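Handoff note, outgoing to incoming analyst
You'll be picking up this chain. Sequence as last confirmed:
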Amino acid sequence: MTNEESSFVKDILGNSSEESLPLFIFYGIAALLVSYHAVVYLIIDADSISERNAIDQWDVSFNQTIIESSESAFIQSETVSFELEIDADILSQYNGFGILEVQISYTETSGLPFDSCDSVSATLQPTGAQAQWQHESNNLSGTSDDCSVIFLELLVYPDYNSANISVAGSTPEVITQSWSDKSHGLGTFTLDVDVSSSSPAPPPAPQDSGEEITVIWSPVFFDVNVESSPAV
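Most recent structure output, in case you need it:
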């Protein structure tokens, strides 16, 4: 044992138990302080670091509002255009305009015996309003020759499908802003409806004079809700 080691041991042990007691207390306190700082670093600080590095998770949901309007026209072997105008005042009431749904209905109105339903076709024209005209989920045209209802649908706001989504990171303000672009859907939507009338017999027998077409416009607006996801 070296002189320094011998001196250290003597400092601890001393010449008597009374002499060594203060040193035991001193070294005991020192050991406790070292242990305390180790625990703080390994446990408490580790948790704090983990919390600082955690990525916020957000649940995003949508409240939908559908505003229906309808119009009718009597059509005989011709094409008639129906229009729906969406202006800035309407869009300002919601976060966004998600989807446009359209129903075209008719019944055989000639009253002629054995007169079957006329052929009706309808097409949403990809002009006049900003929307996702090329999206694969769209149904922009349809036909009917049995008086069944024609259903059309157009995606207006990018990626909107009304389903709840989860977002990692960001903030509620930024997420809400990403769903609040008022340019989507602004403008005039045009629906062309064509009726091809048919009669049960040629002239001079009475002829089918056409059909009454009813169009129901159903723009789907939405508001955004952003809430923090429960911790897992």
